[in-house]
Amino acid sequence: MRQAILAWQGDEEMTERRTTRRYDLSLPIIIRGPAHRALDPQQGKTRDISTRGLYFVVDQKMESGSQLDMTLTLPSEVTRGSDVFVRALGRVIRVERRMEDGSARMGVAAVIERYDIIRGEAARA
Q1: Could you read off the pLDDT of 17-46 as tens digits, one per residue?
Q2: Interior CA angle at 90 toward 43 and 108, to 5°?
Q3: The CATH classification of domain 22-124, taken from the options 3.90.180.10, 2.40.10.220, 3.40.50.2300, 3.40.50.720
């Protein structure tokens, strides 16, 4: 397994801390809060993703530490078949305000605690 760790070491040195490979993928994502908070779903786009975490951009503010229920769509162009949905549970670890196309958006880094892969046909059933 690739060991990648980014840590601050003095003036200008950084060490990569990620332990899994990260892929630059812009995918549609739907984010829901935990069931007991009944938040309206938010739509966004991923910037990058790995098996342990992801970074996505949404319009509304999220709080660090918040639990998330996320659904990503892997389109048929990526899967070379039908659309595949990834349902993931995770937690926000960092939130940053960013300008994108002239408007303020929220960049969110989240850790994935659990995920299930659902084929497109099964998701419609």
Answers
A1: 556 788 899 999 999 876 555 568 999 999
A2: 50
A3: 2.40.10.220
